[in-house]
Amino acid sequence: MPEKRSISADDEEDHVHNGTPYAAKDDNNPAAIAREKLANRAIIFDTIVTVLVGPAEKSYSLHKGVLCKYSAYFRAALTGSFAEAATQTVRMDEEDPAIFDLFVSWLYTQRIIPDDITSKDVDWQILAEQYVFADRRSSPSFKNAIIDALAIKALDTKQFLPQYGTIKWIWDNTAEGASLRRFMVDYFAHVADLDEAFRTQRDRKRPPLDFVCDVLGRYYRLTSRMCNVNREFEKPDVGKNYHDKIDG
Fold first, then answer.
1. What pTM, to 2 d.p., does this model score?
2. pLDDT band at residue 227, thresholds of 50, 70 and 90?
3. Fewer CB atoms inside 10 A, N or C side of the chain?
4. Rounded Cα distance, 132 and 126, in Å
5. What is the CA radius of gyration of the chain?
């Protein structure tokens, strides 16, 4: 099966079991609706599938309903006409098990940053790699959660901008218009001392030219409106401005 697919994220938030959304049978009965919703939530935990990750094929036994709920890639692989639907096994040789571990943790906890660590301890690069994984595997909910984690980190660590090695990696691994690119451009435009940032060879690397042009253009638009440039990233919910749309 080809690893790269263009898969719609339609119905991601529907209750899904074996690829089939379930709806309440009686829309006029609140108790029936509540019971149906509880049953739907239980259904997503009833079938186990295998995911093999990385060259060494690290094995994961995961709930099919959970994977299908949050990833259109897994939904297509496990419920469509691909061989994986018959074997109930998905191989992802090119993925990093360390990043997949974080995806699995988020699937079951809905948290990017665990309670026992602070956002300052979370590396920009790791968050970027999680975002690219989420984009490649068609999981907008995971992408949005990562953006929210980035926003929290940005709020907590304004004086510690991402290294240019990370910025270059993002630009090399995302498409134009990606929400992660927009977030980084706005973050630098809002909080960075651009004269110092772009004159200094941070981590012995230069930022991508496209990134520099985008930041300078964004900064010009902000200042031309006479707005307070630094205020936007003081808002704890700034991440929602960069969320991907979730259909369904």
1. 0.76
2. low
3. C
4. 10
5. 20
